[in-house]
Description:
- By secondary structure, this protein is an alpha+beta fold.
- The protein folds into three domains: 15-164 and 351-376, no CATH class; 166-337, no CATH class; 396-586, no CATH class.
- It has helices spanning 15-18, 24-43, 57-67, 76-87, 89-93, 102-120, 123-149, 151-156, 165-188, 227-244, 248-256, 258-280, 282-285, 300-325, 330-337, 354-376, 409-414, 451-457, 517-530, 556-577, 581-586, and strands spanning 47-48, 54-55, 193-196, 199-202, 217-219, 287-289, 296-298, 396-397, 400-404, 420-427, 433-440, 461-470, 478-490, 496-508, 513-514, 538-545.
- The strands form four sheets. Strands 8, 9, 10, 11, 12, 13, 14, 15 and 16 form a nine-stranded antiparallel beta sheet that branches. The protein has a three-stranded antiparallel beta sheet with strand order 3-4-5, with helices on one face. A two-stranded antiparallel ribbon has the order 1-2.
- The chain is flat.
Amino acid sequence: MTIEQTPRPVAAPSSASASGRPHLGWWLVGGLVLLSGLLLFFIFPYQHADQTHRTSLASGLWRLIMLEQEWIFCPLVPLISGYLAWQRRRELMASPLKGSMWALAALLVSAMFFWMGYKADTRYLGFAAAQLFVAGAILWVGGTPWMRILMFPWLFLVFTWPMVPLEERLGFPLRMITAQSTTVLLNLIGVDTVRDGTSLLSSSNPEAGLARGERFTLEVENPCSGLRSLFSLVMITALYAYLSLKNIWHRLFLFACAIPLAMAGNLVRMIMLALGSMWFGTEFAVGRPSSVGGDMEISTFHMISGFAVFGVALAGMFGIAQLLEGRALKGVREGFSQTGGTIKNAELPPPPSVRQGLARGLPVLVFASVLLGLCAITPVNKGLSRPGLTMELPVMVDQFYGQEMPMSAQERAVFEEGVDLVRRRYVNLQDQAILGTLVMSGPVTQSLHRPEVCLPGQGWQIAEQRRVTIRPPDAEPFEASMLRLFREVELPDGRRVRVRGYNIFWYTGYGVSTADYQQHIVITHRDAIFRNLRHRWGMSSFFLEMPPSLDDESNPMQDVAATSLLMEFVGHIAPKVTVPVDRAVAGESDGHTDPAGETNPLAGAVTR
């Protein structure tokens, strides 16, 4: 006897799903994942955004954007990514909620970065944790099919995070490239221009009675380097390439063009400022010093020239897209109107049940809760260690006598709040001069400037950078960096001479020193995480300038004598400006404490 089985009817989609409204299962998945993200990144006090208390990562991000307003586009990025994901909603709903084990790897790495950033009190590890958390949540809920669909919206989220450290890494090279390129272009169009570091000056014209820089003097500062427009243009180009182009290689090519397009726009801007200064005067083209605070009042022409960067870059972007696929604006309209393919309501699988929604969303919430509990029981250092430098330069060093040179108002405007500087100019009987400078970081512990960045901005060119070993007479040897520099100087009679200089510098923390700027950042985070020690770094710099020379070639014997003199001087002064570790622990009460930093007035200092 056989039993005929009646085919079981396939359940039709619920009215809620068919009408386009999410089912309760979808609400549970989305709500639990969203709650987990809110707890981790919007509510939990993660990092010190000021000197008094911790705030959430989102709050600290907003404070940073308000201080560094070139990143004002960052809060728009999650909204754009969310819209791009919403466009693909039917593709997502057509994929079953079948997670991938790769989610565990992404979430574990996210947890590691989150904990390390909390321990080291730095926002950037938190940014990495947030990016990976989103990837882990996508993989846990929908697996690799969801990740493929949402790959671009997830990658686009990278533009949410202000990459302020890149400003120093990229800002100065862009300033130098801009200054060099603008000088070449101005000379090509008949405007005689000379460059001094990152400054552009009109050439002298004895026949017309014009001195050097009299027609115009422009300083290519960070706002004029193209850096502020670069990041926003890279973001716009990435979005435009995704929406307007179909070929993946065309998209990558257009994205790669963002940097040269931004630089081209900035060159146009600098030429406008130079020509405007010549034709209408510096006050009209650039601006004039403010009567309050000494800052520059930017002129209307200067502001208008800033839009040239975007005008040139966007025109170039549209032109390249048109050449690649003939889809300059039509492609954007098509990209924004896409609805995630041709999937119809009848083809959608049944929505997840309440049980499935809990199974996908609840583990993410448990993960977030465990991570927050781990951070809550983690001991953290509430303050900075004692400085490693005395911040006192001796009056006499060997046969050199030092005259104090206080910090100028311009230097105070450049330095971060709380940065301290002491400086002396040392001269011996042979009239040889060495400039000694000690700089102590403020509440923002990575607020030290790098000589290899600052000196070229003052017109010096680096001929060589190498490590040297300093051997004090009565102390342990240590490593420092030495720069060999030169610059061209124009004499009143029009002749150009070459001036050479040598600079030795190093960074000092609590019982540690390093010759490398990047290494001092690595040590900062390493010791905060694994030793519960937060360094307050200082930099020691000693500069020897040689007499001007009409020769382009250096004298090897002069170089050897100069470097030997400078290294011997540094060997004598280094022990006098360095605080021994035992004294730093048990020293006099001056507002600082041992590495635990319990009574340090800089407790809660910001670490970028």
